[in-house]
Specification:
- With about 300 residues, the protein is of the alpha/beta class.
- The chain has 10 helices and 14 strands.
- Strands 1-2-3-4-5-6-9 form a 7-stranded mixed β-sheet. Strands 10-11-12-13-14 form a 5-stranded mixed β-sheet, with no helix packed on it.
- Strand 1 and strand 2 form a beta hairpin.
- The protein is globular.
Length: about 300
């Protein structure tokens, strides 16, 4: 008997996916780390934020949750006295776009892949959590979208943003600061913790591996990589993440193809060799196997 959707949701609902209603943001502090002249990363609650600043203004990558906006603005003000001109969303999830309404309402131009606008513009159903996500208000939607890529020429750098085939979702973008040699990967990279793969938004484990391969081909030994979650990384860290995903995929894919249930796949402990390093964060081992199973086409109902 295959697991039902409700069984899968019950397993995954225990995950610490920090929803706005479930977290006390008053206790969260924003910390800023300088990566290069005019380029910083902000850590807080939700996805890691990239900040480019200089004479042309401020360009921000992702904006976490709405209650964090004041703290994000304060952190940016500590870096630059220029206004936030652009907000680039790496994908549609609320821990990366929750501040859009505040940022857009204050005049920032929100930019994202066209699938981000499409998903934010209508109600979404996150199957892994059995959760309906309401459509975002118009002011929170990206006003500039692209199908493949877009480049910004700001603050002395070329900021190249490009879409990849479905991986974490179907609207993922990577942002490459070419002069600074810094890459923001959004949730295509969870550094030191098992990643969430949103199969209900088109995400696939194979796509996650492909995205890592593409960025590995761009990076060199001095490239600084901003993950969606976790600490700053280098090329070697991304390679370890990619190889972990590939090893788990190679163990699970034949089992899914053979029609094994989620419980049967979990019983084989396909992540056991990696749990000590990767299984103590966002997703626990069985939870990661569940999202990987769904993304590989495993039947959840």
């Amino acid at each position: 008997m295959r697991p039902t959707l409700s069984c899968l949701a019950a397993l995954l609902l225990s995950m610490p996916l920090a929803a706005s209603a479930q977290q006390d943001f008053s206790k969260v502090e924003i910390t800023a780390t300088k990566l290069a002249d005019g380029l910083h990363v902000l850590f807080g609650a939700g996805g890691n934020i990239g900040v480019s600043s200089g004479k042309d203004g401020v360009f921000v990558i992702d904006d976490q949750y709405a209650p964090m906006t004041a703290k994000i603005r304060a952190a940016v003000a500590g870096i630059s006295d220029k206004p936030i001109r652009f907000v680039l969303n790496t994908h549609w999830h609320g821990d990366h776009t929750g501040g859009n309404e505040n940022m857009g309402g204050a005049g920032a131009i929100i930019v994202a892949h066209e699938n981000v606008r499409k998903r934010m513009g209508v109600e979404q159903f996150l199957e892994a959590f059995n959760e309906r996500v309401p459509a975002s208000p118009a002011v929170a939607l990206p006003v500039v979208t692209y199908a493949e890529s877009v480049s910004f020429h700001l603050n002395g750098d070329e900021i190249h943003c490009f879409h990849l085939p479905p991986a974490h979702t179907d609207g993922d973008s990577v942002v490459h600061f070419k002069k600074a040699n810094v890459i923001h990967m959004g949730d295509l990279f969870f550094n030191g913790l098992y990643p969430f793969i949103d199969a209900s938004s088109g995400g696939t484990l194979d796509g996650m591996i492909g995205a890592a391969d593409q960025v590995l081909g761009m990076a060199n030994e001095t490239t600084q990589i901003i993950p969606g979650h976790g600490p700053m990384a280098k090329k070697a860290d991304l390679k370890v993440f990619r190889d972990m995903l590939a090893a788990v995929r190679d163990k699970m894919k034949p089992l899914v193809a053979a029609g094994k249930t989620l419980a049967e796949v979990q019983a084989t402990k396909p992540t056991q060799a990696f749990d000590e390093k990767w299984g103590k964060g966002f997703l626990k081992p069985d939870q990661f196997v569940a999202v990987a199973y769904a993304s590989l086409g495993g039947k959840t109902k």
